[in-house]
Design a protein that fits this description.
Two copies of one chain form a homodimer.
Chain A: H1 2-6, H2 15-25, E1 29-31, E2 38-40, H3 42-61, E3 65-66, E4 72-74, H4 75-78, H5 82-88, E5 94-97, E6 100-102, E7 109-111, E8 116-123, H6 128-138, E9 147-156, E10 170-180, H7 183-203, E11 210-213, E12 225-232, E13 238-248, H8 250-255, E14 258-260, E15 266-268, E16 270-277, H9 279-288, E17 305-309, H10 314-333, E18 338-340, H11 348-357, E19 362-366, H12 368-373, E20 375-380, E21 386-390, H13 394-419, E22 421-423, H14 427-436, E23 439-443, H15 448-458, E24 461-466, E25 475-476, E26 483-484, E27 487-491
Parallel strand pairs in A: 3-9, 17-18, 17-19, 22-23
Antiparallel strand pairs in A: 1-2, 4-8, 5-8, 6-7, 9-10, 10-16, 11-12, 11-24, 12-13, 13-16, 14-15, 19-20, 20-21, 23-27, 24-27, 25-26
Chain lengths: 494, 494
Amino acid sequence: MAKELKNLTKRSENYSQWYNELVVKADLAEQSAVRGCMVIKPYGYAIWEKMQQTLDRMFKATGVQNAYFPLLIPKSFLCREAEHVEGFAKECAVVTHYRLKNDPDGKGVVVDPAARLEEELIVRPTSETIIWGTYKNWIHSWRDLPVLCNQWANVMRWEMRTRMFLRTAEFLWQEGHCAHATAEESEARTVQMINLYADFAEKYMAMPVIQGVKTESERFAGALNTYTIEAMMQDGKALQSGTSHNLGQNFAKAFDVTFVNKENKPELVWANSWGVSTRLMGALIMTHSDDNGLVLPPHLAPIQVVIVPIYKDADGLKAISEKVLPLVEELKAKGISVKFDDADNKRPGFKFADYELKGVPVRLALGQRDLENGTVELMRRDTLEKETVAFEGIAGHIEVLLEDIQNNLFTKAKNFRDSMIFKVDTYEEFKEQIEKGGFILAHWDGTPETEEQIKAETKATIRCIPLEGGDETPGVDMITGKPSPRRVIFARSY
Amino acid sequence: MAKELKNLTKRSENYSQWYNELVVKADLAEQSAVRGCMVIKPYGYAIWEKMQQTLDRMFKATGVQNAYFPLLIPKSFLCREAEHVEGFAKECAVVTHYRLKNDPDGKGVVVDPAARLEEELIVRPTSETIIWGTYKNWIHSWRDLPVLCNQWANVMRWEMRTRMFLRTAEFLWQEGHCAHATAEESEARTVQMINLYADFAEKYMAMPVIQGVKTESERFAGALNTYTIEAMMQDGKALQSGTSHNLGQNFAKAFDVTFVNKENKPELVWANSWGVSTRLMGALIMTHSDDNGLVLPPHLAPIQVVIVPIYKDADGLKAISEKVLPLVEELKAKGISVKFDDADNKRPGFKFADYELKGVPVRLALGQRDLENGTVELMRRDTLEKETVAFEGIAGHIEVLLEDIQNNLFTKAKNFRDSMIFKVDTYEEFKEQIEKGGFILAHWDGTPETEEQIKAETKATIRCIPLEGGDETPGVDMITGKPSPRRVIFARSY
């Protein structure tokens, strides 16, 4: 029974298939009837909610407020910022009509040709344009600045090849949009938010990330500068996990947003935007999970502790419940989310496999003999280690253990990531290493041509110019031999 | 200054204009560049977030889990349930293309005719169809039931006449969709959720509601039965504030969702759905607010207490701050949200008017003389009463006061509502009374024809057949003279 439940492809056999199966088998998400769009199932959504709540609290602590802007954007808005439309307008869902009517020739409904919109509306791929169109009404004086808004929303980009969480036509995200009086303040906020994302990734997702700057060709459409956090998945590929863009005055220019400064002179407003999405779910899964299923860091696990009773009859369950229910209350009082699974239509073995698959960090099992001995069996999901411990004082033990698991997952992921960073000096070496995966620290001459050549020949892109932890010694480009001020990070990526 | 800030139309002059102005002036929302769609501004969104958090907690306490389903629905899905498509498909945003391209004849972008979708996609007006299309994969055995899912989402209905919060093309809402093994269980859940909404309206929004059942012509498209909560606004009009629909087996039939019961026989699944939306913001505003601006019940106010210092110079502010900051901490420790507004670019008079306009329940003002006397000036927004009280023990005083304001708002709204319920026996009386507003308890013969005649002649609709608190004495229809088992509630409505 337990084996059938899992029957999960091994990572070493086919990493990509392992991921796709795990997403479905762990009840995180599934394909929908709509091309490229997924259904996020309750267990997957519960993890996303924990991410949202944490990030939302972190944003608000920096003075950010939430707001909501329209889903549909007039086509003309997208065209206002020239680079932006190049980057986004091409792959969008377009609303052209606002009514259906009964099909005069048969059953069902057809688009009503009389209800054609004068101007087409685009389902937002990102909201800079509609938001800066709105900020024009909000910002008049230096007293109105800064504006620090965030929006939790759905967005759509018509991707040709989709994968659940990693790249879907519709996805959920947050997008922050700030307006400032000075370039310095806007740059400081841009950096503050990428730091916040790195903090979240490391402290909550237990996922080490490298912070850096994108090259011009990898920048957000319309940005002066894009900061990124890059994580490494277990197959050695990079996953861009969050970005923060310094937009300069581009959107203020495009939407004519000016303010009167303290000297009573009009100035253009400075902008930044920053976002993370349900893609983080993919990153979380691929950073920690194993061939037995999902592995969740305790800080984001919807169920942190599951308790499975092992009993023969109703009396046996009653005796165990009497012992367990006070523990459940004690754990809840400590802010630990706990589930006592006394469902009698599933066997303990099935439950064990199911909670393993779902990545619950700590499992307790309690039978008749444990009652007699004053013990409980405890398993930690990260190492799969089982031990029999005293029931007395178990709540305090679990509290410590959860932090230990959280730290252990981070350390394990960091050790793996660090072992997969390679310094390479020749293109031959580069081509050999890239096949094995990892972050490659190499010299680059700074030209888009060399970047493009490497991408075409090896499928590796420059993930970022690292802010710290890189190698700042100058050198020469491995292909052109031209000077390079410092190494950048190359990798294949999701 | 203070007067300019407000300059709000009086309710008695023009209620509708008062509402529209208040929404904008209190910084709740504004019209966007997209027809019929609003921007929810940070202050308005903060109130909506409080509603969301409270409802979400209440839903989860009944076993409901959140999930997320696609924004776009294939056109053919809408047609599966015949009544449903009649009710919804006509007024929808239709996505017909998935790409734009550079305009070959000029600037900007145009729809790429090569990127026409084979099947049009509809921006969801509600999600029964896509969700029941998904439940087919989730439900096989009685062990899979019940399924209790909720979704927080945006939806679109192409309304011709829109008003902020009350009726907008795009709005935010939650929609719960439950699947059950028996008709009884599904009906019990339908009733449970309308009770939950009534509870939320009364305990958090301080808004009395009447629970009842909709007549056939006012039912949700595809439902066997629709339960509603109806509130009364200050102009005597009704506002439908939440609905819960018993959908019977209609959607299970349409999407072929069956389960194997305990006797190993296939059966169709039973469904219900229930929702409230950002329309509740309109209800909240119109229930309590006055000619000075918004009045918020403390349970939903983003800022419950504001403290305004009155000082001449930096030393004066410092002395006040030293006194106030420990109080701020004390209030926060009690779970009270408090703002100490020491901004020096606005005068106290301006701040007073602004917080009045924004409905902050309690305002404290503290000047030099208060410091000397150990006092503080306290104003409660509901009655606008000011008093000077001892600073000592003020936190405890405020805690009690907030509950008092909450209760007072409910009582005031309930007394008003109760004073506006009229029992009427003749159509002449009815026509006279309906011009003055209110809920009219009248006899109705139960036919859609009479209902339609009354609507056409008086613009009044049957808001509901009340579940309790109505009058269950039989009588005769005021127009046709045919027998009526009990009185129903008529009103003009939003």
